[in-house]
Amino acid sequence: MEIHDRQDPTQRYSHPFTHELKLTTTQKVRGAVLGAVLFPLRVVLAALFFLMMWPLARLRLAGLSEADRARPVQGWRLWLLHTPVLLLSRAVFFSLGFLWIRVRGRQASRAEAPLLAVGPHSSFLDILVLLPAGLPTVVSRSENCSLPVIGALLEFNQSLLVSRTDADSRRQCAAQLRERLTSNGRWPQMLIFPEGTTSNGTVLIKYKPGAFMAGVPVQPVLLHYPNKLDTVRWTWKGTSWVQALWHTTSQLYTNMTVEFLPVYTPSQEERADPALYADNVQKLMAQALGIPATDYVMESQRPVRKLGCLSLPTPSPARETLLLLQRHGVSDMVAILKVMIDSCQSHQDLLISADQLTSLLGLTDRQTATKICNLYSEGEQTDLRQLAVSLAAVSGLLPVKSLIDMAFTLYDGGSKGSLTAVEFGDLMGALLGCIQPQSNRLYKELSSRGQPTPDDLRVLLTEHPTYQKLLPQYLQPEEANGNTERASRNRTALSNKKTT
Question: Which of 52, 164, 233, 497 holds its CA 20 to 30 A away from the CA of 364?
Fold first, then answer.
């Protein structure tokens, strides 16, 4: 019997980049017994099939010049080697327990849809979708070329390679992708995972617009894992890839269903706006899956939600800090903020260590201060201004105008009444609790009539059709929770302390 692949609704995550496989005692015992036999047997078989593919994969482009490698393979290199590699690839996944692959719908030809968009992307095992799709070409990280066998298979596939940390590499990959997608069938179909990273499958995270820039028709492809245990998911936090492989190979078999949806042809508006095209395809696929389409992305190894060009870290570092302080017994946030703001304005060192933060806030243990610093930075130091501004924003202790005035005072170097692009980026990073890599876009919009002033930022956050959602929906001051009277008292107290 096929069991629908919905997660236990009692499992709640603050973002879709966490997945923990919950097992009963019986399931753990059964998995240990079966895994002791199946795991080593299946991994060895998969490795043997991979080794058999290695020389065949290398043979496809052997002896070709760089110019020939940049063109689609033809002749015997195509028809002689394609089928053996496809069959051996299927043998790899068969040995891992994927005995059947169910296919729904019809795959479009490359003339009908040069691009296949696959989601949700939940695991390294999702590459199994390449087999029923006939081994279309893919985009992969350039680092994967150094991996044994995997590098040979990427070469065989004539995959596009990109370094995520190299802007030139990303631009070159985008140009090559557009060239292939608009080659009128000269290149094979391309398959992408437009989410760009794995999630737990409870939502679709935001699609990257790169592959949609060519404006060609796309065929959405849905992945389903209709199993009693959701063993294949591998995300940023939670079950590791080794655990996912162990639990998957410890099952007698694992089901996978590949569903081809009708081809989506972009409108003229979508061709002109790749981000809109990507968003609409995401919404269509989410609707077919019965899950939400969201604005979550992974940015600098941190889960964030996108609001325009702003990145909203999830969970909010400031909210996590408030919880830590409350657990530590800190209840007078007015006094805490007053101490931090006074320290910032005294022009002492703005980078503060865990030991200094422990002393400044009067904490009794250093561990709490260390955790707070780690929420905002990778080391045990953080910018005290960032801590003060973000806590003031989420606590609701200041009205919007006072909050913006206070932030401007802390970040306006030279007290000139306006902000440079760097200062504006730092201020927005402080307000939201993390670096804002695209703040320059917002700065250009805001500074069209000169360097931004406090009033310009206030208008942006209260009247702009997109960014006016920031304060009530993300920062959520206390009024949003029905504590208007308490917030008013706290604001008065903080204002009094600021004037004394």
Answer: 497
